[in-house]
Amino acid sequence: MADESPEKQYCYVHPDRETLLRCNRCERPMCTSCAVLTPTGYRCRECVRGQQKIFDTARWWDYPLTVLTAGGLAVLGSLVAGWVGFFIIFIAPIVGTIIAEAVRFVVRKRRSRRLPLVAAGAALVGSLLRVIISLVVLLLSNAGVGAGLLGLLWPTVFAILVTSTVYYRLKGIRI
């Protein structure tokens, strides 16, 4: 019987590591620390990175549209939510969902890794605009700073809830 042992292979990134694992797309030998487990098997990092670029479909104009949509709707939502007090914790996730779906509609469902961050940032700035204006007026008036700061609690809670909802809805994470 002849010795039919396979030829020794070494990782293409780490030439000192012997391996039997190959990328199922480009067939390059790779060690376990370089391998990425995908639903179709193990692939090298370059093949995974190349595949991910296909899913980045956003155009440059989607970012300003996202800022205008998310920021504008957050300002409107914070103005409306200013009258409800405690019930803001129920209204803010709904407003966040509306903002996320409006952004998704405006950019025609194109995707990008940065788009959820841009939308969440614009929603945060838009929803905190009321808080910032109220804080400036409060500091300039010097009347009842303690009570005035307590009045900023619910708009701040609104901003946090809206921002997190927009981010997670656009990121694709469902809770």
Notes on the protein architecture:
It is a single chain. The chain is mainly alpha-helical and 175 residues long. Helices cover 58% and strands 6% of the residues. It has six helices and four strands, in the order E-E-E-E-H-H-H-H-H-H. The strands form two sheets. The protein has a two-stranded antiparallel sheet with strand order 1-2. The model has no long low-confidence stretch (mean pLDDT 87).
Q: Please indicate the count of domains.
A: 2
**Share in β-strands:** 5-15%
Q: Could you give the distance between the termini?
A: 59 Å
Radius of gyration: 25 Å
As a percent range, the share of helical residues equals 55-70%
Mean pLDDT: 87
Task: Please count the helical segments.
Answer: 6
- The count of DSSP E runs of length 2 or more, i.e. the number of strands, is 4
Major sheet: 2 strands, antiparallel
Strand order of the largest sheet: 1-2
Estimate the global geometry from the Cα principal axes. elongated
The helix-and-strand class reads mainly alpha
User: What is the H/E string?
Assistant: EEEEHHHHHH
Ranges where pLDDT stays below 50 over 5 or more residues in a row are: none
Brief overview, please?
With 175 residues, the chain is mostly helical. The chain folds into two domains: 9-54, no CATH class; 62-171, no CATH class. It contains six helices and four strands, in the order ββββαααααα.
Describe the secondary-structure layout:
Elements: E1 9-10, E2 18-19, E3 36-38, E4 41-43, H1 45-54, H2 62-81, H3 88-106, H4 115-141, H5 145-151, H6 153-171
Antiparallel strand pairs: 1-2, 3-4
